[in-house]
Amino acid sequence: MAAIGSYVWTEYKRQQLQVGLTDRRVIATQWTKCGRQTTDMSLSKIESVIVEEKGRGAYGTLRISGTGNVVLRFEDLKEPGKFRGALQRQLALINE
To answer: What is the 3-state secondary structure (H, E, C) of 15-73?
Structure first.
């Protein structure tokens, strides 16, 4: 029974997070019981991108480190490796 509860909680958390990428920013919106929280970071401020995948890489954690000890951490993100690839391509475009 505890495993079912854990699964339901994990799926609930996954549905409460949206992460987007524009040509200038990474934007994340998370819904909580207190409302909506939106976080963003300029692509020019990103220093490193770390992916921790679980199992076959379907879900994992994405950590984006920026200047000034700022860290965006997205847990239970679907296909974090694909998002990292898209982010790295966008970073390469702005660094040309």
So the answer is: HCEEEEECCCEEEEEEEECCEEEEEEEEHHHEEEEEEEEECCCCEEEEEEEECCCEEEE
